[in-house]
């Protein structure tokens, strides 16, 4: 695919995924209009474009899937495709997910007897639940709605607070607006029950009840042999225990996760906040993925993180390119999208670890970055590729050399 022009690639994606001419035009030519943008956010003055590419080779739960990725970083899409290719031999990515349950927090303050208040709230759960569900008939009609409640007692530097968590199945919505509405609606009842004063009523981005998982087996022969397997397991062991390494390990995962999140018009900050807070849930910030060597000597990668994404609400239905990207993915539910997103995170992470465990990350990365350096030096048209190729062959990729080559040309 990388040998085609952008227009040829788009045509191929349209043929493979059944995108209409109009949907293809949104992606390839029209993009978001200024008027549409003006309806999305405030004080609009323009648009900033981000490249949209398609990662290939993904087999997810037995299905061939093309992955639209929006990212400004070179080598992300190539690496994801490469990682996915190496998982194919053993069947690709196998996924699972919890129900799409989000939490809304209600902070009750001024309570003299937190244990008593907690029990009083729990005793009235069905009444609270009824009131919450009355706020969103549409969600309830789709099989969602409040499914439970937890009440925490939280000692803070100010006072001991009672924090109620509404657990809400958000079906195909990311759900922040949906649960915030519920939290605001039940707050007066909670004040009445506890005699306290409610302040915050808001979704928690630590969406630990809405996680997706993926695993893949990478055959040792396919990835460079048992030494590579061992090196990746060692790299994983460090990221599972050391926050300094875990941060970069997880950044690599988020290269893939954020690119698909953005391409589908979802809230990338919500996904980032969820991922990093989940990584720190034990009290130590750890990696979101793990690698082991199985009994056959092959590498087994696993990943688990919250994926609060939706197919309705937010910008997903409003942004025409996001809508077309959802169609490319062929997903029917938010759950499907979450499971694809974590698979991309795992492929991305595996590709980075493999590069680190073998030739190092810089060679491939800088080769792909060389074109950016050439452009930064002022190259245009054919000169970009000529200069990038020359710098790559010299193993000397920097702005000074690019400028020199441009002058020579
Ligand atoms: P939303 O309110 O636009 O859409 C959700 C609603 O769609 C549901 O409440 C339901 O009534 C309806 N719906 C129709 N079909 C549905 C189906 N099949 N499944 C589920 N619901 C269906 O959006 P939302 O998902 O509640 O909230 C997402 C938005 O909230 C994003 O734009 C996000 O950026 C923003 N947000 C995020 C935060 C945060 O993460 N902290 C806080 C506030 C707002």
Could you characterize the architecture of this molecule?
With 409 residues, the protein is α+β, with helices and mostly antiparallel strands. It folds into three domains: 51-97 and 211-358, 3-hydroxy-3-methylglutaryl-coenzyme A Reductase, Chain A, domain 2; 101-204, Hydroxymethylglutaryl-CoA reductase, class I/II, NAD/NADP-binding domain (Alpha-Beta Plaits), CATH 3.30.70.420; 364-408, Helicase, Ruva Protein, domain 3 (Orthogonal Bundle), CATH 1.10.8. The protein contains 17 helices and ten strands. Strands 3-8-10-9 form a four-stranded antiparallel sheet. Strands 5-6-4-7 form a four-stranded antiparallel sheet. A two-stranded antiparallel ribbon has the order 1-2. The longest helix has 24 residues, at 334-357. The radius of gyration is 24 Å and the shape is globular. Nicotinamide-adenine-dinucleotide is lined by residues 136, 138-139, 142, 144, 170-178, 180, 203, 205, 267, 270, 310, 312-314.
């Amino acid at each position: 695919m990388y040998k085609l022009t952008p227009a040829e690639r788009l045509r191929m994606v349209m043929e493979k995924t059944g995108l209409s001419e109009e949907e293809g035009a949104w992606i390839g030519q029209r993009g978001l209009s200024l008027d549409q943008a003006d309806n999305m956010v405030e004080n609009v003055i323009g648009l900033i474009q981000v490249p949209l590419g398609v990662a290939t080779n993904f087999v997810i739960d037995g299905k061939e899937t093309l992955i639209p990725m929006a990212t400004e970083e070179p080598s992300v899409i190539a690496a994801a495709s490469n990682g996915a290719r190496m998982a194919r031999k053993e069947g690709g990515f196998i996924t699972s997910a919890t129900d799409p349950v989000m939490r809304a927090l209600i902070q009750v303050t001024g309570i003299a007897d937190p244990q008593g208040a907690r029990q009083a709230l729990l005793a009235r759960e069905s009444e609270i639940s009824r009131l919450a569900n009355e706020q969103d008939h549409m969600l309830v009609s789709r099989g969602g709605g409040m499914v439970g409640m937890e009440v925490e007692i939280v000692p803070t530097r100010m006072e001991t607070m009672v924090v109620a968590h509404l657990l809400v199945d958000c079906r195909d919505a990311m759900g922040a607006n949906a649960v915030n509405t519920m939290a605001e609606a039940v707050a007066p009842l909670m004040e009445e029950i506890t005699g306290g004063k409610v302040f915050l009523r808001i979704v928690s981005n630590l969406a630990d009840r809405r996680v997706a998982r993926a695993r893949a087996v990478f055959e040792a022969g396919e990835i460079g042999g048992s030494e590579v397997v061992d090196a990746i397991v060692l790299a994983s062991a460090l990221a599972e225990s050391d926050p300094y390494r875990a941060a970069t390990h997880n950044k690599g995962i988020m290269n893939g996760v954020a690119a698909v999140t953005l391409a589908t018009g979802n809230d990338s900050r919500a996904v980032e906040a969820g991922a990093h807070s989940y990584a720190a849930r034990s009290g130590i910030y750890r990696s979101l993925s793990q690698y082991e060597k199985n009994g056959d000597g092959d590498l087994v990668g696993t990943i688990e993180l919250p994926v609060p994404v939706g197919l309705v609400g937010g910008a997903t239905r409003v942004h025409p390119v996001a809508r077309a990207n959802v169609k490319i993915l062929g997903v029917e539910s938010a759950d499907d999208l979450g499971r694809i997103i974590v698979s991309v995170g795992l492929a991305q992470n595996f590709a980075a670890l493999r590069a680190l465990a073998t030739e190092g990350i810089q060679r491939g990365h800088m080769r792909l970055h060389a074109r950016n350096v050439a452009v930064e030096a002022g190259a245009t048209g054919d000169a970009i590729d000529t200069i990038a190729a020359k710098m790559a062959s010299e193993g000397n990729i920097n702005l000074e050399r690019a400028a020199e080559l441009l002058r020579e040309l």
